[in-house]
Specification:
Rossmann fold, alpha/beta, Single alpha-helices involved in coiled-coils or other helix-helix interfaces, single chain
Length: 850
């Protein structure tokens, strides 16, 4: 809920002011204590409070009152901070807020919060109505994670449907056929298509497969690019639509292909791309999923499928699997459980969501009866509103600290794949992550998102080598819920083609879906002086710079006024550094900097006086990386330890002197580039890297000349290591093999050189993923015991390697060997390993030859 997130944000601001080495303002100690006590009391109330009933269009009274009080506290404190900094930087001649005004304003805020506390005590103690519902929901929200994880892709109740579709996909006439799957949202169209796509029959029958999601606002160029990326297994970013289509057409000629076009909303999407899919008369197939029956009828409807609701038996099977996994439903819950299932009316999405809710709650008959009574009051509504009500129950039963995180997902586009690496800094900057002792805010954010995945509110798109979430999506029905609830709670204001939203001048977050902002809208938008996040993919008018004075998250481009005027920024995107680097000192609370290297100049970027920095991420945008460098910090009292700094990406020629090391003790991820051909390896002191005891991810990239990192020692904490053009001898691999937590190792472009690599027992004890690309290697001597946990092996562009050691196939955990552009003997040895494993009955090992 917005109120809880706002209270957490207030606590962050107070803490940041009190712990900052050079705070822009000071808060009277007694005021800070009174404010903290009031905020904590309201947080405690909200943690046990849940709005009564199902979804309504009306904002909850207590949430509204508390949110407004928290917003007032934010405005008073941050306005005073901005005034003081701007006055100090001579941006404003006169200071808007005096110290006395600030003190008085904060007192009023505290008095208002205390007044709300008294009202709550007087009124809520007497209101015991629906107590059982609140207790059940509180239990559901506060329970620990279930050991059974619902399987989104499981086709329960649709086995015969799957078999019929597989028969149509792999059989029938040789002509190219379009096979539509039609049904309402949440009925399982995409799940069925996924099972068809991943079935062994389809994998073996077709030469190539591709999947593309269309969505309501289709982009024909993006459709072609997605398909071509999978067909050619390359990235195609800069080609026009026609060029992409031509490449796709040429790549599909003569090949039997299978393509899924998921969630098509209009025939125009197909009409724009159909000419690029040749009819090879070899049984190629395209499956289209859509909610619209009239659209499906435009294809060869006889070959398609209309999804039906699950019957009671299949619904119960899906529900049981979601709630209990492989366990059986206790007899005392079976009767009430079947009532709940009947209330879902055979809609798989509703069953999965309600099942996910109950898997997190106490499994008692009383709790389930409460859910069943509330469920029956909402699912019996007609039309799509019934699904909204069911989805709202899942949202309403979230722990209160997860609700702001879930609501924020509505700011992303329909069917947008959300990389968690980009989301986490945003969640931290927004300020609604509640700190947990011993855990960084980034870890807290990742746990929040994972819990939303566990509750079937987010769809996993991709996980990494060790199972950590990399990207996810939000179902469109759940996104609709997010947007409705977020706008109702004034958590997020959405600007679209409709009229100007009421109360825009008091909004905290504004999402603009417009490519540009029409003249009538600008005055209203400029009046939103309290906005903290302005999210847009279109152009942003410079006039907003002067009015969004409290902005925390910037989406603006290469304008020095950003740094000059928006001194409250926590997350900043810049296309280039300002000519006056000292301006960064006014960004008192900057946490994340994305710097895109478009210009020709080399820059030195000084971060050593920015104590709140957490992430510095530089992208070279097609130019040579490593052009932004950090200066050596001066050993004087003005320099400080960057306790919060976790990420340094694409920094050039960083020297790990004693002064540098002591200022970045908690860095977790680093990408380093060394291109200085005039320097000596000792200049960079990479042998002292081992003192960074929290470093988990490290990439070192050298110039063609190499030999700049000959002496390098790695910290024991490393989990992922990538080396490129470091030209190390294979003998040095011994110290890498002894890293106890290393899970992923990538060796790229002459990372190592020499004819022979021999491993020894006791090395690579936790390594799961090994990739060797374009390294000089003739002979690899190893044993399966040397890689006891290896799961994935990738060998590419190895022009001299004789063969893959046969012992590799005996690694019990190995799942795949991928070979690309290697010698014939390597390919032959990979095929031989597969044959040997098949003879031993191991059908799980995949050999991928490209």
């Amino acid at each position: 809920m917005a109120a809880y997130g706002a209270l957490v944000s207030v606590m962050h601001i107070v803490d940041q002011v009190q712990t900052h080495p050079f705070p822009p303002i000071s808060i009277h100690q007694k005021q800070a204590e009174s404010l903290t006590e009031a905020v904590s009391s309201l947080q405690h109330f909200l943690e046990g409070y849940s709005p009564r009933g199902g979804y309504t269009d009306e904002e909850d009274f207590w949430e509204s009152r508390i949110a407004e009080a928290a917003y007032d506290a934010e405005d008073v404190i941050e306005s005073y901070i901005v005034d003081r900094i701007r006055a100090r930087s001579e941006i404003d001649v006169e200071q808007h807020t005096s110290s006395a005004d600030f003190y008085q304003g904060l007192q009023m805020v505290i008095a208002n919060m205390n007044s709300i506390k008294i009202e709550i005590k007087e009124k809520m103690v007497l209101q015991d109505q629906n107590h059982s519902i609140k207790s059940a929901r509180s239990a559901a929200a506060g329970s620990s994670r279930s050991t059974s994880t619902p399987q989104n892709a499981t086709m329960i109740g649709f086995d015969d449907v799957l078999l019929r579709m597989l028969d149509k996909v792999a059989g029938g006439e040789p002509d190219l056929q379009i096979l539509p799957i039609v049904g309402m949202g949440g009925i399982g169209k995409t799940t069925l298509a996924r099972n068809i796509f991943s079935s062994p029959l389809v994998q073996e029958h077709f030469d190539v497969r591709a999947w593309t999601t269309i969505s309501h606002e289709y982009n024909s160029r993006e459709i072609l690019r997605q398909v071509l990326d999978q067909v050619m297994e390359e990235k195609w970013e800069d080609l026009s639509e026609d060029d992409l289509g031509l490449h796709l057409y040429q790549s599909l000629i003569g090949r039997r292909y299978f393509v899924v076009m998921d969630d098509m909303w209009n025939i125009e999407a197909w009409d724009r791309v159909r000419r690029f899919f040749p009819d090879n008369r070899n049984g190629s197939r395209i499956v289209v999923t859509t909610r619209l029956s009239n659209l499906a009828s435009l294809f060869n409807y006889a070959n398609g499928l209309e999804m039906q609701f699950l019957d009671e038996d299949a619904s119960w099977d899906l529900f049981s699997n979601t709630v209990f996994g492989k366990e059986s439903c206790p007899l005392e819950l079976e009767v009430i459980g079947k009532k709940i299932v009947r209330g879902c009316r055979g809609l798989p999405l509703s069953i999965a969501v309600i099942g996910g809710l109950l898997s997190k709650s106490n499994r008692t008959k009383e709790n389930w009866e409460v859910i069943e009574k509330d469920l029956s009051s909402v699912v019996n509504l007609e039309g799509n509103e019934s699904c909204l009500q069911v989805l709202y129950m899942s949202y309403n039963n979230l722990p209160v600290h997860l609700k702001p995180c879930f609501l924020y997902m509505g700011s992303y586009g329909e069917d947008e794949v959300i990389p968690i690496s980009r989301l986490i800094p945003v969640l931290v900057a927004e300020g609604f992550l509640k700190p947990i002792n011993g855990k960084g805010l980034e870890v807290v954010a990742e746990e929040y998102v994972e819990e939303l995945v566990d509750r079937n509110l987010l769809i996993v798109e991709k996980r990494n080598y060790c199972g950590k979430l990399k990207s996810f999506k939000l179902h469109d029905l759940l996104r609709d819920l997010c947007l409705r609830e977020a706008q109702k709670l004034k958590f997020l204001c959405v600007l679209g083609e409709q009229s100007i939203p009421q109360g825009i001048n008091s909004q905290r977050r504004i999402l603009s879906t417009l490519s540009d902002h029409p003249t009538p809208l600008l005055p209203s938008l400029e009046s939103a002086s309290l906005v903290r996040s302005f999210i847009t993919t279109g152009e942003c008018e410079k006039s907003l710079l002067h009015n969004f004075r409290l902005l925390r998250l910037s989406c603006f481009g290469d304008d020095e006024d950003i740094v000059d005027k928006l001194v409250n920024l926590r997350l900043l995107n810049l296309a280039k550094l300002p000519e006056n680097p000292s301006l960064f000192s006014f960004l008192w609370n900057l946490q994340t900097l994305y710097l895109h290297c478009y210009d020709e100049d080399h820059h030195v970027f000084d971060i050593w006086k920015m104590p709140q920095l957490r992430h510095v991420i530089i992208s070279h945008s097609g130019r040579r990386p490593g052009e932004y460098r950090l200066p050596d910090p001066l050993s004087d009292e003005e320099d400080m330890v960057l306790e919060n700094l976790q990420t340094l990406h694409e920094v050039g020629s960083l020297k790990f002197s004693e002064e540098v090391l002591k200022r970045i003790p908690n860095v977790v991820k680093m990408k380093l580039y060394y291109f200085d051909t005039t320097g000596e390896e000792d200049d960079y002191l990479l042998n002292d890297l081992c003192s960074l005891h929290k470093l988990e991810t490290l990439r070192i990239h050298c110039s063609y000349h190499g030999e700049l990192v000959r002496e390098v020692s790695f910290p024991r904490s490393l989990k992922k290591l990538t080396l490129r053009r470091t030209c190390l001898p294979w003998e040095d691999m011994t110290k890498i093999g002894l890293l106890p937590f290393l899970q992923a190792l990538k060796l790229e472009k002459n990372a190592f050189g020499g004819s022979e690599w021999e491993t020894f027992e006791g090395q690579f004890s936790n390594l799961k993923s090994l990739s060797i690309h374009a390294c000089y290697l003739e002979c690899w001597i190893t044993d399966n015991a040397h890689f006891p946990r290896l799961e994935h092996l990738v060998l590419s562009y190895l022009s001299y390697l004789g063969e893959i050691p046969s012992s590799i196939g005996d690694i019990p955990t190995l799942q795949s060997i991928e070979v690309m552009q290697c010698t014939d003997s390597v390919v032959d040895s990979a095929e031989r390993i597969k044959e040997e494993q098949q003879e031993l009955g191991n059908e799980n090992l995949r050999i991928i030859l490209q």
